[in-house]
Amino acid sequence: MRAFLGMALVAALVMGPGQAAGARTDPPTTDDQPKDDWKKLTSLRVLPEWPRQNDVVRIFVHCPTEANHAIIGSTAFTLKGSWRLYREVGLGLSDRGLGRRSVIISYYALPGHHQVRMKCVKVTINHKTRIRKIRVISRCTVPLTVRRFSLSRFF
Q1: Entry pTM
Q2: How far is CA 55 from the centre of its chain?
Q3: What element of type H or E holds 86?
């Protein structure tokens, strides 16, 4: 039995490490530049994921680099005394497509499940006529669960 294992070990070493494992080796790449696929990704993150009424949430955004603005809206962002159930907030983006903003979950927001929707847009303006053109580049949606306000958490 030991002789058989020894012969198998010698055969594996003679064939080489790539052949013994059965793995295919890829040819080495010549370019040292990283791929630019991340520039086309769209992502949205809202922290905390389960906020309470009257809390502040942080919104982190990544849009494609051709976008220069993001529009984020939800029914959880309603304002006191407003008849509108859906509120949108704007967010400027950096050259890399990154942005962040704080938004208040109203005390009057309904507890339960909500959707946070984001549109990455390219805004161009004609300065002479002051006409804006808004082109939607990409969209993203994440769930948000609003919990009931609790006074006991402050004590």
Answers
A1: 0.70
A2: 21
A3: none
